[in-house]
Hints:
This protein is of the alpha+beta class. The chain has two domains: 1-138, Gcn5-related N-acetyltransferase (GNAT) (Aminopeptidase); 147-204, no CATH class. It has six helices and seven strands. Residues 32, 110-112, 117-123, 145-146, 172, 174-175, 177-178, 181-182 line the site of coenzyme A.
Amino acid sequence: MNSTDYNLPEGYSIRLMSVDDYPAISAICSMVYPTERPYTDQELEAHHRLFPEGQFVVVHDFSGDVAGAHFTLLIQLKHFHLDDSWETLTAGGSFADHDPEGHTLYGADLFIHPDHQHHGLAKALTMATRKLVSKIRLWRMVGGSRMPGYGKVSERIKPNDYIAMVRRAEIADPVLTAHLHDGWEVITAIQGYLPHDTESAGWAAVIQWLNPECKTPAAFSISRIPLKG
Ligand SMILES: CC(C)(COP(=O)(O)OP(=O)(O)OC[C@H]1O[C@@H](n2cnc3c(N)ncnc32)[C@H](O)[C@@H]1OP(=O)(O)O)[C@@H](O)C(=O)NCCC(=O)NCCS
């Protein structure tokens, strides 16, 4: 992949995940998600087998180390609820629900090793996924953004009010602000997306990016996807 396509900082490359990357990916997950079980080799192998072109890694050229990753799968959003959990949307992290007929690229995970954060790598990986959306003519990309600044204020600020404050840049959230800077639109706050995510008080923001080259038919708009109720 050509680095200039993604505004990658010098000294990094983006490529598709390979089997040799699995241990490094699990090690990064243990660092950035201390309350979650990291991916197993079997899960990463399943992602690779089901949808190899949707699993991106960014590599630090000098050391050869994996610096971060972005994992995606294809879904038909109408088969889900807007407030379904990450477990449901990824079939327990297996990606067994990957649907080659799906028109929505679901962003299941995006993480950068702490030593390599704030270099524009998440932004570059996001550009790589959008290029895939464009290449295979999908309608959109959808994801759930953690909001790890929310836990500290959850007793006095409602989740959608918190999101509005982050959007107005009155406060910065370590994850949601990054997504907003990368051009995502927030749809709504949802509860229980990652139940162990105490930093976000169990809340997340449903986020969407629409492909300007392939309009979503009105009947399939994200606004038509119901909540579990
Ligand atoms: C969220 C995360 C992926 C961002 O990665 P990153 O490579 O540091 O982000 P980038 O350097 O590409 O920054 C992208 C934009 O977000 C902004 N940003 C990044 N981190 C930020 C922070 N902590 N606070 C405010 N803004 C931030 C950057 O300024 C940049 O905006 P700009 O281009 O307008 O300057 C990274 O912090 C991470 O891995 N966190 C832990 C795992 C996680 O929670 N992933 C998200 C799952 S939903």
